[in-house]
Structure formats: structure tokens, C-alpha cells
Amino acid sequence: MNVKRLTQLLTCGLLLIAAGSVNAETANWIWAPQHSKDAVPRTSCFFRKTINVRGSQRVILQAAADDAYDLWINGDRVASGQSWQQMRTIDISRHIVAGRNVIAVQVTNTTGPTAALAVRLQFTDQNGRTVDVVSDGTWLASTRIIPQWQSTQYNDSQWSAVQVYGPRGTTAPWLAEGAIPVPSVDDPTTTTVSTPIAPKEEPRFQIMPGFAIQEVISAEKTGSLLAMAFNEFGSIVASQEGGPLMIFSDENKDGVVDTGRVYCDEVKNVQGILPLNGDVYAIGEGPQGTAMYHLKDEDQDGQLSISETLIKFTGPLGEHGAHQMALGPDGLIYLTVGNHTQMAGQISETSPHRNYYEGDLVKRFEDPGGHAVGVKAPGGMILRTDVDGSFVEVVAGGLRNAFDLSFNRDGELFTYDSDMEWDEGLVWHLPPRVLQVIPGAEFGWRSGWAKWPSFYIDSLPATLETKAASPTGMVFYDHQKYPPRYQDRLFACDWSNGRITTLQFITDRAGYRASQEDFLEGKQFNATDIDVGPDGWLYISTGGRGTDGGIYRIVWKGDEPAGQLKDDETGIVAAVRQPQPHSAWGRQHIAEIQADMGNTWDAQVQGVAIAEKNPSQFRVRALELMQLYGPTPSIEFLLKLSNDPDADVRMKTLKLLSLRNESEAADRIADMLSDASPKVRRSAAEALAYKDAKIPLSLIEPILTSTDRREAWAGRRLLERQPVDEWFGEILSTKDAHLFNMGAVAAMIADPTHDRAVKICNRASELLDTYLTDQDFKDIMRVIQVAIFRGEMKNSELGRLGEQIAREFPAGDHVMNRELIQTLAFLQEGSITDRYITHLDSNIPNSERLFLAMQMTFIPTGWSREEKLKLIGHLEKGLEIDGGEGLRGYVEMSTKQFVKHLDPEEKLLLLTVGDVWPNATLAALFELPEERPAFIIDTLCGVDRKLQGREGAVIERLQMGIVAILAESDNDEMMAYLREVYRDYPERRASVAMGLAQQPTGENFALLLDSLSILKGEFASAVLAKLRNAPATSTNPEHIRQLIILADQLQDEGGINAIRLLEKWTGEFPASNTAPIADRVVAWQDWFAENHPEMPEAKPVDLAKGNWNLDELVDYLTDDEFQGGDHANGKQVFKKAQCAACHRVGSFGEAVGPDLTEVARRFQKRQILESVLFPSHVISDQYAARKVLTMDGKVLVGLVTRTTDGDVILTGQDGAKRTIMANEIDEIASSPTSVMPEGLLDQLTAEEIADLMTFLGAAPEAKVAGQAKTSR
Predict the structure, then answer these.
(1) 1212 in helix, strand or coil?
(2) Domain of 712: which CATH number?
(3) 480 lies in some domain
(4) Which of 23, 257, 301, 1092 has the most crowded CB, counting CB atoms within 10 A?
(5) Which residues form a coiled coil (predicted)?
(6) Residue 384, SS3 per DSSP
């Protein structure tokens, strides 16, 4: 950047950020000292600053950099930018913790010889004082990247102090606006720029050639945005996350919105915005809770107020709640609703989607992580209503969490549904899907593992399954400013991947096929919504989950596309060719054209619609204009056009006929069931179904048996509206398997009776003896499943059907086998278990094997012992699949399900293989009898010994289960074993303490007292409850202190047990029994300080004190990705950190303090780290420091050792020894402070601390590359 002054003069006003509300000190420009100010290489520099924040509710940070920066708070990336001219304002409150916080910034010099960073931050401390933190000489810098440098764990003691260039705004070359001398216009050397300056183009994006992205409104002005839409006058209505509805307008009339203000603060956190007829419809949180609100500016003051509440929703507005809206070509409002929300009011009986059901044959396994547990059909929905909210219909269901929806030029509705990434690797995982939403559509989302595959006959397939995405806003581009290949394309936001994708749709019979490509990808670009502006550019809002907001637009930089609407094209031509006609500004412009045309409008718009020489696109548009703006087409007009040779015109005419109540309209639509166009036939069936028109099966059959899924679907929905008794007999007697399948499903959806279900299953049995195509076979299997579920049939009623289905397994097709096994599981068909196992043993994909094995767990009988063990082995093998977070939980549930079917001997056998099949052994524990023989206890004890040193969540749960059973055994030998485990395996002490607490006496009591310093949460509460009933007590001040600390930590979640125990042990009552727990804890802390002044205070440690956070260090050392430390280097770190001056490991070090050779066998990782970080928190009596007062008034502190002559040898914090003669000593007193100094780890990196813990035996040795991992 060597032309900064010129850039200053040319910078667009759009990007000149007004001074924020933060009245902070001036930030300084800083950089690493390794570089000269005017000779900075094109490289990155890394900065850190540690701050302490106490009691602040709001923390604001501003940053600017030359050239680009990324900023982290406590390891979380919160912002990025590319501007030195203005400081970007970020609310970082949600990332700040009480105590120590780290600001980390990476700045990259991409152009020019200069680079710098300026940061300022402001918050209010606990005393109400405003605290300013600015970039200055206290910041640290490094020129090389180090792992975890952004985290609070990282030690920056080796970093250099920055060099300070000077205050921002007055330091060249980064001069603020107004600090640059501007020549007079009379100066002949001045060059003036009269053309408007476009918004700054951002370099951080990858975008399709010919396009550019520009920041229109900065994050400082918008805040985090959730949704946006253009209103009638080209202003952007946008919603702030957690905040009000905003409006951004073009105040300087340069064609770009630039000024924002609050538009409505009565509704907040708005996720859906629809400007309509001068008003705004909004879905958000308001006085009536989560609802769709109609907002109006009735007093014309420029502010919207709630006029009425149209639709209420259950529960809070969340990420799976009610979302966006779109105006349909029928004039109705369509909206998306996620699977965690339902409508609070009545659903209209006219809903196209009705009679939904779950469809499970065996017990459902819900999501192990708890997502959507218990949520029933229809799950996520597409709803529609009118502008008054007088009715609400369900258009489609079976979605997960589609955020937005949009209509294409043909008037067809599309949405983009998200996936459940935790299901990855499992056959029921549904990827993100682009869906064509036809009336009555069912897309098969169900909770847990019950999701329907897309091939089900009672579910519709996706138009396109896409790669991983988090779909948010979407819009069809119906403008002309982009090249033709991008027109009538869908543009969709992908929030988590920072992408905008574009999808091209090609008509495919009654539906579409689609392809997708990445259009734009940006760094830190969390796109939430997208819309087309009056200028023809795409506009994108960003934000969500506290990320940066802002509004961007995408412009075309290439040659002007042909076919654009010209200025001299006015009147009806302009109306018919109006870009984005369903947008608020598009509708407004059409209304203005109509007003200008006056009486000529009617004849001209009708003329465009009638003239066959016009392109179908314009004729269809003219028909739409007639319906929405007038003149309403007459029935005669529509009947004539319904015979037009153009299929698109017939299609639009049919949709308009469907809005009419005349009998001629219904008759003509019925005739169109035989139209030559699949789309027209599909639409005719949809229209007749909505009207509940009575149509004979003979007219429906050609559509019903279409090989096009969407056409057949519409035919089936129409058949469902006919009285079932009138056509069911024909369905049962047909030899056409496809017709039978479609009709049977229609019968069981429309009017499911047990008698019909039996007849359907009997007919299916007959058809299974005939030749069936693969597709017909899959469909007939689903027909049987639907009949069983909807007809509430029992497996005993299925006759020979079970034998027939068993005969087909295994098929040569994985999909067929899935359907076969689900039905066989319901039938509990155990006669072919040998074939089950043989197929599982064969070379099939792991995901297919796991699904089959899971279903087989519902078959209780027929298995040999060897087959049972093989099935369990295949379930355990499923854990090897590279899948989502839910996979392990589903395997555990399946294993537990099957273990129930084992006989007692087999369950006992599983107890012996816990080291090989921990899931199975854990499941077997739940099946043990209450009276457990001694050999079971001995067996479990042996398994526990084998598991020692193993890691993993299942191992930990299995060990906890074994401990619980051993503790309940009332066996002295087992209690002795638990005491042995407690002493030898520190990491297990919390759970073992719960076991020992079952007998809180004798040796157990002593260990329970020892455990007081390590117990947390539920473990602590449970142990304390048992100790209250123990006969023994303790008056040891350290035990009393730990009880008070536990009371402080537990508070209302079990703190009362600690309080009661304190009262029992001490006989003291420093606070009233009616006082709140928090007050009683404070009273006990004061009591302890008064009665034991020599002891450390009875308060939890400040985890953020010093350079390292205890919790974060423990997480680092126990993380699954932690690879271990270097033992040899750990020995050097032991010396570097001054540990060797007082402690010994083996023969290395001094023996002044405790010997650490076996420290890892005596203490947990957390305890070891805590003792180093907070040495005065727990002090051994043997090594407690003493204050030595000398006769000459000196106070010396250290470890005291007396000689035989009465002299004292005092060892200081540095390990140095000093002899004090007996006649020089006045007094020796206790000290609450450890002789061990604090901050010993402050000079170490995270890697060095890991090496130190490895040297002490508390962390594993790093594995050599290529070494096999220990099985989990």
C-alpha cells in the first residue's frame, strides 16, 4: 500500500464508517519489531494481548489493519477485515469470560511495503468504571505461526514487544479523513473525479469470472443480520439477530442503500420478512410470543407497529422454528417451519398435506444426542395463508429444517432442506436436499433413525441432493442484468461454508432435474439471506450466531447482456417484461405502469395473453398480470386459452381455472387430466384434489401409473379424495402391480382400516408369487409396511407372508435387503438366522451391514449361541465406520436391545469380553439379576483389571457400571479392590468414591475425605449425601475447608449436603437455616477465615489467574486429538521450570519438597496442574511454609527444618538453604502461603507443559509416526 493518500480521496462514502458509540482512547498503529516501517515483506504478523474483564455486560472491540486481518477472542475467530481507513466495530460480549481473556490478531501484508494494526476495546468493570484497552507498547508480536497461538493456553512469554508507530488518525501514511490536505479546486495541479465511486470490491472472495462482490453496508452499521428483503421503494428491510427490524435506504440517491435506522422494535429476532402492499409481514418474537405479525405504519411516521397477529407458533423462535416467507403467484403467503415448532392454532381441513403418519414397524431409536426426540410427523412444514391469516394450510411436510423458499418463473415452489450431519455414515442419513414443493408433498423426515428413503412410494424424491451445506436464504433470479445463463436460476446461501451456490433447473416431464455449482465463496462470510435489488444485482446479508453482519451485492462486470429492458420500452411491454415481478418493488413498478396506461391497460394485457405469436413466457406473464392487477379473466377467456397449443399457456390457464368456482372450470380441469403435457396433467390432478372433485378411477389411472414420480403422486393424492369404497375393489383385483401399489397406499392413507390392511397384505402375498420388477418389489414391500402400521396389524395376521419375505432374503440389491429386513424384524422371523449371519459375514458395505445388524436385534428367537455372538461382533464392528456423532449411540442402543434376548449364560459370557466388546458388556450389566452370585462379582473385577489404562467414553461408562455393582455387593474383598483402584488410578477417583460411599466407614471414610478435593457436580452431591449418614466425623481444618469449597461450587445443586455436613462435624451454625445457600456459604467462609487464619481461604481457585487456565489445560491434555508428550524434553522442562530445585523424580532433582516419582499414581492430572498453578490452595502439613520472625525484626518464609541444636534450616522458594541460629529466633508462625512460588508454568508453552506431564507420568508418551493406535 504505497498510494494511501490517493486511496483516501477516492474511497466511497458508503464505506466511511461513522464513529461508533465507543468513546475510547486513540488506538496506536503497531507492528512487529523485526520489520522496518517502510519495508514490511508480504507476510503475516501475529499479535496477542491479555486483558482481565470483571463484571462487564457489554464489550465492544474495534479493529483496522493494513492490509487484512483475522481476529480471535479466547481462541474463537470473531471477525476479519481488509480496511485500514476505518475501524470495524464488533460486539464481542458473548466471547468474553470473567477474568483472563486473550485477544489474538493475524495481520497479512498483501500489497505495498507498509503494514500495521490498530485495535481499541472498551468495557465497564465491576465498579462501573469505563475501561479502555488500545493497541500500544504492551502488546506482543511474533512473525512466525505457532500451534494454538490464538488460545488462552498458549504461553507468549517468548514473544517480542511491538513497535509503536503512533496514534491512528495522525500517523502517516495511515492518515484519517480530514488529516489529508485537499488542494483548492483552483489549483491547476488538482485532478477532480466527477464519476460516482462504486462500493469497495472485497478481495477475500472467490467468485465466478465476470462478477464482483461489493460491501454495501458494513457490519458496524447493520449488526448481525438474520434476514432481509427489498420493499416497494428499493429500501432494504433487515432484521438484527436478537434485535429489531431495521430499514436501510438510499438517502443520497446514488442508487445504493446507505443509511439505516430502526424500523420496528415491537418484533425482534425476525427470521422471516415479506414487504407487501406497503406493509411488512414478519415472523419473529413479539408480544404474542413467536408469531407471524402484520406490521403497518398507520400514522405515517416512518415506524412500523403491530397491526395484528396472524399465526402463533409453539415454543421460542429458534434455529428450527418458523422461518421465511414468500408471496405465491396465487396471492397467498407461503412460509417455512422447522421441525421443532408447530402452529398453535387450527390447521385448515383443506390442507393439501393431511393424514400424515410415522410409519415405524419396530421400536424407534431416537437420536442419541437428543435432537428432535419425540417430534412427530409432519416435522418441518410448508404452510400457506392469506394476507389476513384467515386460514392456514399445510402444503407439504416431512421436512427437517428448510429456512427459505422461492418460486420460479413457472410458478413452481422450491425449498432447500438441511441434513442431520450426526447421521453421516448411516444409511438413513438424508443429505441436504433441493425440493420441488408440490401440493401435498411428503419428504419423509422423521426423528431418530426412522427417516424415509427417497425411493419410498409414499415419499417424494429430491430434485437434487447436494454436498454438505447449511442452507439459509434463497431466491430465483428473474432479472436481466446478469447474463442469460444465470437468469431463472436459484441462488442459495450456505451459511457454514460461506458460499453462494447457483442451481440450474431443466424441465423433466412433470418436474425438473437440477445441477449445482459454486457461485461465490468467501472467508468469514456467514450468508443468512439473499434478494434481488431493483438495480438487478444480488444482495446478501450476513450474520447469525453472533458473527459479523453486513450487506453485500454481486455485480456483473462483463459486457452488458443482450435482451435487457430498454428505457424506451414502456407500457405493456415494460409490465410484461418487468424484472422480478413478484418482488415488492417489482409489483410497485407494475402498478405504476398500469396507472400510467389508464384505460388502455385492459385491452393490451389481454392482447398479449391471446396472441400465439408472442413467446410463451410473455403470454404467461400477461395472464398472471390479469389475475393480480386486472382485468380478472372471464371463464370464457380461460376456457379458450386452456386449449392453446402452448403447454406453458395451458398450464397457467389451468392454475387460474383452479381459482374459479364455476362448474365449467372443474369440468375443463378434469378434461385436462389427459393433456399431452405431464406438467399440465400433474397440475390438473392437484387442482381437482384440492377441490375434492369426484373423478372416476378410470380417469385417474393413467396419471396414477405414470413413471414420473410427481405426476403419479398428484394422481394418488386425487385418488385419496375419492370415496375409497368406490375404487378399492378394482385396486385389489388388478394384475398391474404398479397400480395396486399406488392404490393400496392411497387407501391406507385416506381411510386406514384393519380390514383393508388385511386385504392389502393378502393381495400383496399373491403378487409376490408373480414376476415383479425390482421397483415394483420395493414398492410392494413398502405397501406391506404401510398396511401393517396404518392397519395396526399383528404379525400373526400375516399368514404365509412372513415365509414369502424370508424366502427373498438376501436379495442381490442392498436397498431390497433393507426393506426385507425391516419387515422380517417386525415379523420376528427367526427361521433364517443362518442366512442373516452369512450375509453379514459377506463382502457388503459396512453401513449396510450395520443397518441390517441393527434391525436383526429385534428378532428375539432362532439364533444359535454362535450366531448371537457373531451378530454382536458385527454391531461392534460398526464402530469402525467413519460416521457422524450419532453412530456410536445407535450402536450402543442396538447392542442393548439385542442383549435382552440372550439367555442368562450368554449374558454372563458377555461379562468376560469387556475388553473386546465393551458395548456388549455394558449392555449385559443392565441385565444382571439383583442377586448376583460371587462368581459374577469376581468376573467383573477381572474385567475391570483388564480395562485399566484404556480410554474412551464407553470404557469409562463400563468402568463406572462395574464400580457400582462391586460397591453394591457388600463384599469386603471388593471394597478392598475399590480402595486399591482409588489409590492406584487417580483419574477414576471420582466414580470410585461414589462406590466407596456406599459404605462410608473405616478405611473407606478416610479415602472419602481425601476425595473431597476432587469431587465435582453430581459425584460430589452423591458422596456428600452418603457422608451425612456416616457415623464418623472429621475436625481436620483442611477437610472443613474442602467442604466449604464444595458448598460454594454446588450452591443450589447439592450445596445443602455440604452445609449439613459442616454443621454436623463442627457443631457450628454461622448462618440461619432459612438463609439462601449463597449467603450461608459466605458465612462459612468468614467463619473459617476467623478460626483458621493460618490456612488458605475456603474459596474455589480463580481458574483464570496467571497465564494458564486450569480447565483449558486439562481439556488440552485429555482431548482425543492430544498425541502425547516428549519424556526426554519433559526432563529438561522440569529443570527449566525450577521444579528440580526442590523436587525429585527418580534420582533427578533435589529432595527438599515432596518426591514426585510416583506423583501420577497418587494424583489426577487436574490435581497435579492445580498444585503447580495454585500452590497455596492445597498445602501438605509436611511441607507447609512457616514464618520465622527474627530478633532484629525480619520476617523470613520457607520450609523449616530443625537441627539437634535447635537451630533452623530455612529452605526458600528458590531451593536455597539458610541456617538461622536458635538465639536469633523470636517466633515461628504458620503461613497460609506455600513456599512453592506461583507462575512456574507461565514461561512454558502448552507443548512444554505436555512434555512435563509426560515426564511425571501423568500424560502418555507421543507415539512414533506409523505406530498402530491402541484399540478403543
Answers:
(1) coil
(2) 1.25.10.10
(3) yes
(4) 257
(5) none
(6) strand
And the C-alpha cell for 680?
A: 399440465
Predicted local distance difference test score (pLDDT) of residue 83: 78
What is the full DSSP assignment across 1100-1163?
---TTSSSS-HHHHHHHHHSTT---B-HHHHHHHHHHTTGGGT-EETTEE-SSS---TTHHHHS
**DSSP, res 825:** H
In a domain, 456, yes or no: yes
CATH of the domain at 465: 2.120.10.30
For position 147, which CATH number holds? 2.60.120.260
If asked whether residues 498 and 385 sit together in one domain, one would say yes
**Who wins on pLDDT, 83 or 1003?**
1003
Task: Single out the residue of 522, 540, 697, 533 nearest to residue 225, CA to CA.
Answer: 540
Q: Does 337 fall in a domain?
A: yes
Closest of 177, 50, 181 to residue 121, by C-alpha: 50
Alpha-carbon gap, residue 479 to 396, rounded angstroms = 29
Domain that holds residue 38: 4-167
Q: Which of 1244, 1259, 985, 1013 is nearest to 1116 (CA)?
A: 1259
Q: In Å, how far are 241, 325, 341, 1191, 1238 from 495, measured between CA atoms?
A: 15, 18, 21, 73, 45
> For the segment 321-361, what is each residue's pLDDT rounded down to a tens digit?
999 999 999 999 999 999 999 999 899 999 999 999 999 99
Do 698 and 797 sit in the same domain of this protein?
no
Nearest to 238 by CA among 252, 254, 249, 253: 249
| 377 and 511 assigned to the same domain | yes
Residue 682 CB neighbours (<10 A): 27
Q: Are residues 639 and 774 in the same domain?
A: no
Give the residue from 506, 523, 556 where a domain finishes. 556
- Domain count within the chain: 5
**Do 717 and 730 sit in the same domain of this protein?**
no
* Domain presence at residue 525: yes
Q: Checking DSSP bridges between strand 322-327 and strand 305-312, what pairing results, if any? A: unpaired
* Cα angle value 354/355/358 (rounded, 5°): 120
| Shared-domain flag, residues 604 and 642 | no
Same domain, 406 and 547: yes
pLDDT at residue 1112 greater than cutoff 90: no
| 3-state SS, residue 492 | strand
Q: Which amino acid is at 411?
A: G
Q: Are 710 and 728 contained in the same domain?
A: no
* Separation of alpha carbons 1233 and 1241, rounded Å: 18
- At 1225-1245, the pLDDT tens digits run 877 776 666 656 667 777 778
Residue 631, judged by CB atoms within 10 A of its CB (0-12, 13-18, 19+), counts as middle
Model confidence over 933-962: pLDDT tens digits?
889 999 999 999 999 888 788 899 999 999
Measured CA to CA, the distance from residue 267 to residue 242 in angstroms comes to: 10
Residue recorded with cell 494454538: 148
pTM of the model: 0.75
The span from the CA of 644 to the CA of 653, in Å, is: 9
Q: What is the pLDDT of residues 395-447, one digit of tens each?
A: 999 999 999 999 999 999 999 999 999 999 999 999 999 999 999 999 999 99
- Which residues make beta-bridge pairs with 225? 240
Question: For the purposes of burial, counting CB atoms within 10 Å of the CB of 56, is it exposed (0-12), middle (13-18) or buried (19 or more)?
Answer: middle
